[in-house]
Amino acid sequence: MTRVHTAGLLLALAICSASAQQAFKPTAEELKAGYQRANDFYQRANGATFNLTLTHGWIGNGESLWYRVDKPGNRKEFIRVDAVRKTKSPAFDHKALATALTTELGRSVSADQLPFQSVAFNTAGTEITFGIDRQTYKFTLATGKVEKSSPFEGTVLETQLEEERTTDFPAPYFGDFAPIVQAQEGGTVRVREGQVEVRSGNDWNVVTKQGSYARAQMVAEGKKVLAFRLLPGERKLAYLLKAAISGSTRAVLEQRMYDQPGDRLDEYETWLIDPSTKTESKVEMAPIMGGGQPWSGPPGVRPRGGKIFFSFPIRGYQEHRIVSLEPNTGAIKTIVQEKSPTFIDQSKTNYWLIGNGEKLIWQSERSGWNHLYMIDTNTGNATQITKGNWVVRGVSHVDEAKGQIWFTASGLGDVSKEDPYHIQAARINFDGSGFVQLTRGDGTHAPQFSPNRRFLVDTYSRVDLAPVHELRSAENGELILSLGKGEIEGLQKNGVKLPERFVSKGRDGKTDIWGMVILPTNFDSKRKYPVIEYIYAGPHDSFVPKSFRPFHNMHRLAELGFIVVQIDGMGTNNRGKAFHDVAWKNVADAGFPDRILWMQALSKKYPQLDLTRVGIYGTSAGGQSSTGAVLFHPEFYKVAVSSCGCHDNRIDKQWWNEQWMGYPIGPHYDQQSNITNAAKLKGRLMLIVGEQDRNVPPETTFRLADSLIKANKDFELVVIPGADHTDGGPYGERKRRDYFVRWLHGVEPPLGNN
Fold this sequence. Notes:
The chain is an alpha+beta fold. It has 13 helices and 44 strands. 43% of the residues are buried. The N and C termini lie far apart (64 Å). Strands 1, 37, 38, 39, 40, 41, 42, 43 and 44 form a nine-stranded mixed sheet that branches. Strands 9-8-7-6-10 form a five-stranded antiparallel sheet, with helices on one face.
């Protein structure tokens, strides 16, 4: 009975405490101070941390290495490690080198402030070469002598903190097309003006007649040419109007080819050409999809064992093939025909040829988890190499001699305790035996292997854990030596609060949803704060940071009196196929059911969350999702700021949208369009767009604005002249802050024109 009464008393106290909390509404003085703290975050973090990365270099074949330890006052120490003997010592005589440099440079040099800009050891480890003020010097360890030397390639020594930016999102390949006329210089074959030419001595001879070739290369030991012939699609144009032109009274119209979902795309026929007879033979296979995707143009080909291998998707991205071509006969053979009832993630369609091409390693999600398979290229039979409810993230090395694969994976730890997104390094034999996890520690890992792959330097961290640096055996993962850790005491003394990790169950009541929360530095447990979510829910990746940073831009927003969160809901990547498939023909879902449940669970830990005042912001796909929040979930999200959003998946680039939303274009495209659903807006919405957005056409934002106007909805539109794909840059950052302050706090922000 006593326990029951105690529990009841505690519950009553908790309820009273929660009810006693007052909504945080900053005064003018508090708000001004908050803006100043937000602007000062970079200064608070810069110079307040040390050794977040391990500056190091391998010596010789990698059985020894050096690394640098940074200390306050711009002091540095160089350490040498003997990986075999498991020992550490000074990398050289710092005082002797400082003395020699003082004489050589004609100015005083301190032993703990050696002015290196780059450094490297020779193979024997008996000399170091370093750069100072564009001059190269060599220091001989045995003699203590410094002399000028020849230029070298060494480890660049940088210590300055990079400021996290929220300006432009460059997109170098979006909207690009392989032109009909494409010249390829060099080697013995090229394409010029759509014809294939072969070089004989200094002369180039045309060996084709029909034209429209886009790429060609010699195969069959120079006896044949493999060429891809372009069948042009609709090649429709997209337009940009650049109004802010210096020195001109007229705007400039820019046009470019830009495939949208449903457009007829470029395709490529496969041809074999005999240069000796100038005969062109079409390979009997269907044309290969081209278009404006990153893999635009003809597929890359890999000659091996007298055959040619190439890999390509079928439009709709529910099928992917690897085929082999016998160039002497033109015989084509399908090696892999991967199919999925949903999508095949193109970022995972990787393969590695083994030997003379008798086998290949194929990456596939056919088991429900991204794993590696050994494929017999003669029979097509597949043997699974890696297995388990975890995800292969990448292959770093294939050792054919030893029959081993070195790879990274996430979800290898105890996922009931550890973040399943954390990356670890591992090794496995071709036959699936000999699995070895090479890294350890509760964090996400960034391994760097020695040249002989006997050792690795591993740095791991979390958003709430400073980096830890270790030397490990690459044979069995054994810890050899601790190399130090990042020092962040100065950061915390400057009032920077580390993000907190938080996990709760998703919409199915079973799946863990991971995210992070950032509190204001002046957080008061007696107040209730509005909540702002930063969202990016593109199915192509996962987005909540996993490694340590001194600060995030979300810290700046929190200083204005907000609790800021970021979450990876269902439909994002790197958690297995079922988790990912939620996005299939369902991009508008954006994981919102999971996100809302996550914040509701967080409010039980922090009753200071005011879930009656929730804002959201994002850029690009995050711009689409943040607007979708106030259209499809207005009962929860009240204010949104959306930058350069893809507000209708029919307007954005073909390759990204068809990958997740499917092909042919169905009614779900219209049903999930922000433009179609604009009349549902109930909360506050600010739209930001760059006038020169070459990634997502600006008209998607303007069409949304048009629909909102026709629905007589209040919103704000901010156009950044001359800007590409952007969240608005510094001006957009200020407008975003002010908008949340005005509509979540209910107070006017400081005037920007003062």
